[in-house]
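Dear U.,

Please find below the material for section 3 of the report. The protein was modelled together with flavin-adenine dinucleotide; I have listed the sequence and SMILES used, followed by the predicted complex structure.
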Amino acid sequence: MSMRLSTEVLVIGAGPAGSAAAHWAAKAGHMVVMLEKETMPRERVCGDALTPKAVGHLHDMGLSVTCDEFHRHHGLRMTAHGRSIELRWPTDHDHPSHGLVIRRSRLDQLLVEHTADTGAQVWTGVEVLDPIIEHGHLRGCRAFGSGNGTGPHGEIEVRARFVVIADGPLSPFGRALGTARTRTYAQGVAMRGYFPSIHHDDDVIESVFDLRDNTGEQLPGYGWVFPVGDGTVNAGVGLLSHHHGNDPRSMRELFDQWICQIPEYWGVVSEDIESEPEGGRLPMGASVRPRSGPNWVVVGDAAGSVNPFNGDGIEPALSNGRLAATVISDAIRSGDGLELRQYERQLASKYDHYYRLGRLATKALGKPGLMRRFTLLGIQSRVLTELVMRISTNLVNNDAGGTESVYEIGKVIARLVPDRD
Ligand SMILES: Cc1cc2nc3c(=O)[nH]c(=O)nc-3n(C[C@H](O)[C@H](O)[C@H](O)COP(=O)(O)OP(=O)(O)OC[C@H]3O[C@@H](n4cnc5c(N)ncnc54)[C@H](O)[C@@H]3O)c2cc1C
């Protein structure tokens, strides 16, 4: 016998995108059900680093960010060709001037608990199986609960007026509704592991740009060391998938090479890895379309929202979730489903130019030799490195250094260059 329930808003997936959407919709006073197939805490492969902008979203949500749980960082060290430049996060913005590192098992659990406290019904251990479609219209989903989480055991049918699809990079629910990734856009692939380090509580994160393959060619990607503050660092490597990424063995090789190449300062020993490294995909640059339908919206990785400049996906996920909740709330209040069109429009006005420029940059850096030339030039100049840092973390406004003007020129160039091949 299956269980049936109805809600105003159904959210599928409880990563940062789903939790943000459920939180903001519940806060606006709507009835919300969020379903998550895993039980919390669950592992989610990630570098665990939040940019200052992402921290701003957590503050806006009212999530208490204590130093005991979240490790703060105040800057970024960029390293390439034997040189390093350390930069502090800008203070000339509305959001905090620090970022955070927190293991995703903990961050996502905190977000889920906070979302439940806001009033959403959160069921973990409930896997969504397929959409319920009647007369061509999405009515909800069928799901199955293991009974091991906060959700019930057995078959479940949830009917909803609006659905938020936040089921991560593979997005099976989105695909069932017809979403697809533009395959000509670059996708990221990355792998990470945890290592004990004497500098586990440093207040800078580090990105190293001279990754090489066996032939010595510099690859379009970077290695990172992010101090977690709990005795370990999260160290990993990420690159554009049209290089190594489609072959998991070569990704593992690259990871192993990178670990041996990590700056000595961190005291990372490859044999001390906490457990086997794990990898995943980063659908980036607004590569998934459509991102909405008559009564559904797609958010976070499911919408291909990862920042193509740096692989940061938590901030766009939190931002997409909030925007989704806002348009759905407007649609419920006005009784006009057409309000959902605002989702696509607002995403486009907020991100399209930025992502287009990011796609152009990833395409250019994928060409042999260009990554090397670019990093050789960039690492000679503090001004250039700061420009890269600001653009890649989407902190382009208001600074005195002229980043905004350079960014505007970049946008114009990106508009003139074909985007699809
Ligand atoms: C190796 C690696 C390192 C990264 N490092 C960083 C970093 O340092 N900083 C950063 O900002 N980003 C990083 N990212 C990207 C970031 O992890 C993602 O962009 C982010 O997790 C996207 O959040 P989301 O909520 O959209 O999806 P997810 O976090 O993937 O959440 C999706 C949720 O949906 C659930 N789900 C899926 N299918 C179903 C179903 N059928 N029924 C119910 N639930 C379902 C999943 O269990 C999951 O909990 C990294 C990614 C990788 C792979």
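For the text of the report, you could mention the following: The chain has three domains: 3-74+93-182+284-352, 187-283, 354-416.

Regards,
Y.
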